[in-house]
Amino acid sequence: MVAMVTEAWTLAGCGVAACKSSSSAVASQEVPMLLYPAAKKPASSVRAVAVSSSKCPDRDAVVVGRRRGIASCLLAALAVASGTSVGTARAAILEADDDLELLERVKEDKKKRLQKQGLINSSAAETGYLQELVYKLSKVGQAIDKDDLTAAGEVLGPDSGAPWVQNVNAAFSKFSSTGEEKSAVDSFNSSLASLFTSVSKSDVESSKSAFVSSATSLEKWVSLAGLTGKLKGF
Length: 234
Prior knowledge:
This protein is mainly alpha-helical. The chain has helices at 2-35, 42-121, 124-145, 149-156, 163-175, 179-200, 204-224. Residues 1-57 have low confidence and may be disordered.
């Protein structure tokens, strides 16, 4: 900016110097007229003065034009800087809003986790049902691994309507509050039903596949429900 202003003033100075130079030229042309009055060339002298005098306004116009151009550039630069500042401020405000929104979500998630832990700690019966489920699945898995489907069937019971299955679903209902948790429960029940069917048909391969699916779905639900570390042997 300082360089631009300096250039403008230099240009202005050059214009003044040009005017002085022109004036000197005029004076030098008029001196012969005074020293030699016999030489009658008034028309040429007047014409020379007029031509020399006309050069100064042209240079002044150029200087003024350049000054106006510089002023326009300065105003444009200020406008751009102002726009950048406004944009930066707007971006900072939006970022602050995002941070506040994220902070509110974190607080809400923490509140929900604390509420869930309080619910789990106060639900000893339901936690016991889930603990029983873990023990049963462990025994069933060991029996299937030995291809002993008779032993697996004795642990599971006659069908998926066994009392312990109903107790487990009661615990699922109490501890499941989100759609993802409920979806994991549905997957587990579907796999468990397949396990009952496969074991009753003495289908070893299908029993192994159904057992793996049941264990995977239960593991996912336990993690979602915040019961990790609450169940032994899992």
